[in-house]
Design goal:
By secondary structure, this protein is α+β, with helices and mostly antiparallel strands. The protein has two domains: 2-61; 65-229, Pseudouridine synthase, CATH 3.30.2350. It has helices at residues 13-23, 57-61, 97-106, 150-161, 170-181, 204-215, and strands at residues 2-7, 32-34, 42-50, 65-73, 75-77, 86-89, 109-114, 132-149, 188-198, 219-229, 232-233.
Amino acid sequence: MIYNLYKQRGETPLECIQRFAKVNPELKEQKMTYLGRLDPLAEGVLLMASGEDVKRKEEFLGLDKEYDFISIFGFATDTYDILGKIMRVEKLSELLENDVRRVAMIYEGERDQEYPRYSSKRIASPEVVPEKKKINIHKIQFHKLDILNSKELFGRLLMDISRVKGDFRQHEILVLWKQYLLSGENGNFFLGKFSAHVSSGTYIRGLVNDIGNTLGCGATTLSIKRTRAGNYKIEDSII
C-alpha cells in the first residue's frame, strides 16, 4: 500500500511513519519505508510504502516534486537553512522584488547542483569537495517580499527550531541566532516567498543558497512545504 502522509514541521520522516503506525496498529507487523526524504524543518507530502509495495521504492524516488518555500535574505549558513551556523551576514537597507525575480528565473532549466554538506546524501567535512547531481528546475516563481524586524524573526526561528527533536545542533544554533538578532538594533529583514516545480533529487535549500549568492547578499531557507510528489497532492495527505 502507498500512503500520502503529511509530515509535520520539526519531525523526521521516521517519526512521521511512527506516528502514523501508532494510530494504525494493523501496520505494526508490516515492513514500512518512506519514499523520499524531507528535512526536519520541512513539511508536507511524504510518501510511505508498506507491505509488498516496499519493493517499489525506486519507482517513487524519481518523481517530480513541487514546493512552497521562504528564504531569509542577508544570511548564509553552513546547512543552507536556519538549522545551520551563520557563515555570512549582509545588512540590507533595500532589496528590490524585480531583482529577486530576475535572479530566480536564471535557475530555471537543467543544471548541476552540489549536494549540501549536511544532507541525506552524506555529511561532508569542509575539506571534501561536495558531489554534484544533474537536476531540472522546471519552473520557479517568486511571489513577494515580506519584512520582519529582529524580534519577529527570532520569534519565528525559536518556534520552528524548538520543534526539532534529536541532535541537530538546535540548541547551539538558537544561541547563535539569539546573539545576533537580539544583541542590539539590527533593523528589518527581507523574506522571499517562492514556489517551484523541480526534478527528483533537487535540494530547495541549495537553490535558495545559490539565489542568495547570485544576488550578492546571501540567503538561507526559513521554511519548505512539499505540495506535490508525482500525482500525490498535499490536499489529499493524511494525518
